[in-house]
Design goal:
Layout lengths: L5 H8 L2 H4 L2 H10 L10 H16 L5 E3 L17 E7 L1 H4 L3 E6 L6 E3 L20 E8 L1 H6 L4 E2 L1 H11 L7 E5 L24 E2 L1 H9 L5 E3 L14 H6 L5 E4 L10 E8 L8 E3 L1 E5 L1
Parallel strand pairs: 5-7, 6-8, 7-9, 9-10
Antiparallel strand pairs: 1-13, 2-3, 4-10, 4-12, 5-11, 11-13
This protein binds zinc ion.
């Protein structure tokens, strides 16, 4: 398995013809700091990369906005204002309108870079653009999330999804559709109980491991405030997924407008040097 970002490191060091030579690729792995015993997987990963390129070049008929409008009162994980916008110049006084914004990185629809939960992970500006355009798989757990606000995407959910829609592609984004985006304008998004503990769905640790190790997905994405369920105390999914070199997306909107398989997600991540993530314009092509 070549972890996200590793392919780019190698292809920069080698020309394409060399890149496909497995012997040379093996040494490139070592030079790139990847483990050499995984060189055998390079060929399949590179052909998949070519496949991604083909998929992103296919035509689409609709663009769907997966981004909530970020306003000063948009609910966030900490329950206090994390986004400020104030006027800087005005058309009337200064001949042009500008605002200052002050924004927490993890507010609204946003990306979690690997460094968010790891000491030496990539920062948001270091994520290769080739990792930001991915086939999108959507796992719908609305029925169980309706009954159980602490519901998680489990390995069983993934198995059921694959039995209907085919195997999750390597280097894809796997999104949870719990229906939570409809709550984003109210307190139901954070869904506090009497002890002020949040309750909303997320990905289980086992699902995170399965998607990384068995499917080599590059991103998981939730329509809630976190990759972990709301009442998680250990952030086990964050602590597994992000240190593996992968990125996450939180607070997606409008997943109901997309097919379970076949769309392409385009992650307009910010390029803030050293950033741990940031509000992003995220769209899907279908
Ligand atoms: Zn975040």
């Amino acid at each position: 398995m070549c972890v996200p970002g590793c392919m780019e490191k190698i292809s920069k060091k080698l020309g394409r013809r060399q890149f496909l030579g497995s012997m040379i690729a093996a040494s490139a792995y070592a030079a790139a700091g990847c483990t050499q015993n995984k060189a055998i997987e390079l060929a399949s990963a590179s052909s998949d990369k070519a496949g991604i390129k083909q998929r992103t070049q296919t035509t689409f008929t609709e663009v769907v906005d997966l981004t909530h409008t970020l306003s000063t009162d948009f609910p966030n994980f900490f329950g206090k204002p994390m986004f400020k916008l104030k006027s800087n110049t005005t058309l009337k006084k200064d001949h042009f309108n500008t605002n200052y914004i002050e924004v927490f990185e993890h507010v609204g629809t946003h990306i979690d870079a690997p460094i968010h939960f790891s000491a030496d992970g990539r920062t948001v500006d270091e994520i290769p653009v080739s990792d930001l355009v991915l086939p999108l798989h959507i796992i719908d757990i609305k029925l169980k999330a309706d009954k159980d606000h602490d519901a998680e995407v489990t390995v069983e959910d993934i198995m059921e999804y694959e039995s209907k829609h085919g195997q999750i592609k390597e280097a894809s984004c796997v999104a949870m559709n719990s229906g939570w985006d409809k709550r984003a304008t109210s307190n139901d998004f954070r869904n506090l109980d009497s002890k002020k503990v949040m309750h909303f769905p997320g990905f289980s640790l086992d699902a995170s491991k399965f998607l990384a190790e068995k499917r080599n997905a590059y991103s998981i994405a939730s329509d809630t405030l976190s990759l972990d369920r709301g009442n998680s105390k250990d952030f086990a999914t964050h602590y597994h997924w992000l240190p593996s070199g992968r990125f996450g997306i939180e607070c997606l909107a409008n997943l109901d407008q997309l097919p379970a398989v076949g769309a392409t997600i385009v992650v307009g991540a910010p390029k803030f040097k050293g950033g741990t993530g940031g509000p992003s314009r995220i769209i899907a092509l279908k």
